[in-house]
Amino acid sequence: RVELEGLYGQLKAALGEAWGDYKIALGQFALGSLSQAELSWVLQPLLCPPAAAGAPAAETAKTTTSPLHLHNAFLIALYANSMRDPPPNEVAPWVVATDKPSNAAKNAGAVSGINDQVEERLKREVMALHKRDRKRIKGLSKNAKTEDTGLQEILDYMQELAVKPPSQSQANNEGAGLGKTNWDIEIRRRYAQPLASETLEFPTLNEMQNRIEPICFEEGLTGGVQQGSLQGVAELVERSAEVFIKETLSRLLSHARSNAADGMGVQTNMFKRQLRKEELALENGTLQRNAAGLLPVQMDAQVRKDPLTAYDLRLSMGLCD
């Protein structure tokens, strides 16, 4: 993971008193309360103050790094860490107490009357609509059809793989001999393992076993590890991952394949016309399929088609809707 303490301290020192406005603006943007244009309008005077913009070049060179540069570096570091394993602690120890999220801040909106005002305004707007429109809006959630995004299955699979830390109540109920603190060294080995997205190689059996073992210790599954059943689990995960990747690639690449024998993908007009002629000849008995059940035009398309590349994979992911 990228170390954020240095960037965090420099950005906070560079913004000074504007640090509170900076946090509020980013929080509202993350929650959807601000658009990108509104966020830029709020952060522009904070990250690029007028005094710094009109300073001479010689004087600017002597100053420290600009808040805009620190802001970009900080967000890029956050994005890089989001692609890696989560940290062992929920909040970094170097974050000051005033910046930590508290339960009082989370429940402040429920205590105040802001939510009541929003609900009252929404109720007035809904009641101002026609009865037919209100009935149609009410039935949208019941009759809504789930759209297949193509990648939803992959996203659900990745979310299921995410290891969730045990709750505090479970940790307190564990005995002293099975406490999580006894396995801290084994659990921390999980974060030292390289990711397959970084090495750009399919993980081997030993790499999967070294990654599964700390997760078992973190979840309290120490019995299976001590009995030596970890190798069988690693073999099952390796085969499952290989089958899943192959099926996913074949399903995605079917969107970029043209004139396929199974009818999936794009079909050109020339291929369709010839296919209809041969199907008509097949019904009349003047033409027969081969041993694989393909017509001559389908066999010719398979012979003349080019191999699929990474560009076709990116295209198929864009078309997989």
TrEMBL record:
Q: Does the keyword Manganese apply?
A: no
The biological process GO terms on file are:
regulation of transcription by RNA polymerase II
The protein's location, in the record's own words, is: Nucleus
Quote the PANTHER family the UniProt record gives. TRANSCRIPTIONAL ADAPTER 1 (PTHR21277:SF5)
Q: What is this protein called?
A: Transcriptional co-activator
What keywords were assigned to this record?
Nucleus, Transcription, Transcription regulation
Q: Listed GO molecular functions?
A: transcription coactivator activity
Matching InterPro entries, A to Z?
Hfi1/Tada1 (IPR024738)
Top-rank taxon: Eukaryota
Q: Does the keyword Magnesium apply?
A: no
Q: Name one GO cellular component term.
A: nucleus
One Pfam family of this protein, by short name? SAGA-Tad1
